[in-house]
What we know:
Blueprint: E1 5-12, H1 35-40, E2 52-60, H2 67-81, E3 86-92, H3 98-109, E4 114-118, H4 131-142, E5 149-154, E6 157-160, E7 165-166, E8 175-176, E9 184-187, E10 190-193, H5 206-209, E11 217-221, H6 229-236, E12 241-246, H7 254-265, E13 269-274, H8 297-314
Parallel strand pairs: 1-2, 1-3, 3-4, 4-5, 11-12, 12-13
Antiparallel strand pairs: 5-6, 6-9, 7-8, 9-10
Amino acid sequence: xxxxxxxxxxxxxxxxxxxANAFEHSRYTAxxxxxxxxxxxxxxxxxxxxxxxxxxxxxxxxxxxGFDVWVKLAQRVAHFLAxxxxxxxxxxxxxxxxxxxxxxxxxxxxxxxxxxxTCAMRPSNAVVxxxxxxxxxxxxxxxxxxxxxxxxxxxxAIYGAEDVQKIHPYRLNAFSAGDAGPIGFVEQGRxxxxxxWQRGRVAxxxxxxxxxxxxxxxxxxxxxxxxxxxxxxxxxxxxKGLVVAATGNGTVHQDLEAALVLAIQQGVKVVRATRCAEGxxxxxxxxxxxxxxxLTPVKARIALMLDLMQAAQTGR
Length: 316
Ligand code: SIN
């Protein structure tokens, strides 16, 4: 067995949730059980083994995820990635904003080593909880030679941070990578890969993050009757960036578009992402608003926030 270390960072979620009775899968309280306790319940887990470093970074329902936890998590991940004897990191997280945290860490750190987020759809005290298997699968990915980048492991599949999206509110395999498909699968602790690991594309800002002001970037949606009132209210509130969750291949209601053009004229950065569940927006030559190709609205928002922070720091 390798003497390289695997780090486990706990942040809460359903994987750490508890229900009043073991048959209850939908009414429970997330983020009740510490990551040490979750690991201790795994078959064969050796408490105190020098191979594992375990740390509780946060304990929350991921619907309440915020910038403060992101900064702390990014700092701890960056700290451990820099240790020569650390092979990889596993992060336990709620499923609801998992894709946002995964994308944030990938965009910020673009790690060569594996950073594997995992989760559960059933609370830890369910009759048949899914968290323990997901944790074991995530450990297999983090410990596997050659695995790289930020990934999400759930229900036996490995997804890239840029592609992954929660697509189901209840079932155990709640995630998809759309057209990209999963990077691979974990089968009895072994990895079967379908394609290459994901590489990063944004320079690291992590050392500056703690002091940085997070720019207000909001998502507005185009739909029947979208008239731009929300955009005008956000301009008054001092918004710095707007992502429009556009219809189809990036089309925007003409009244909303007029308000977004006004926002650009006032110095606000605006990007379009498609509200379609699958596929990518194809930019055209006559587009009025720039496109965030390949990113969902929530990920386009993170990319825009990081761009704005970088611009503020470099003065460009
Ligand atoms: C959460 O996102 O923290 C709760 C829901 C879940 O983990 O499935």
